[in-house]
Amino acid sequence: MNYKIWIGITAFLILSSVGVVYSYADTLQEEKIDRQHELIDRSSDTNDNSLKREADVLKVGEYQLNKQEGENTITKILAHELVGRQAATLYVRNIPVLTFLEPEQTNKKTDNQHSDSPVKIATIQSSNSEKQKDPVWRASIVASRLNQFMEENPNLEITAEWDTNTEDYIILVNEQKLVEINEQTILPDTTNDLPTDTLQATNRLRRQINNAPPLKEIVGQPKPEPQKVAIGPITWHFQGWASWYGPGFHGRLSANGERYNQYAMTAAHKTLPFDTIVRVTNLNNGSSVIVRINDRGPYIPGRVIDVSSAAASVLGMIESGVAPVKVEVLDQE
Question: pTM, whole model, 2 decimals?
Answer without folding.
Answer: 0.47
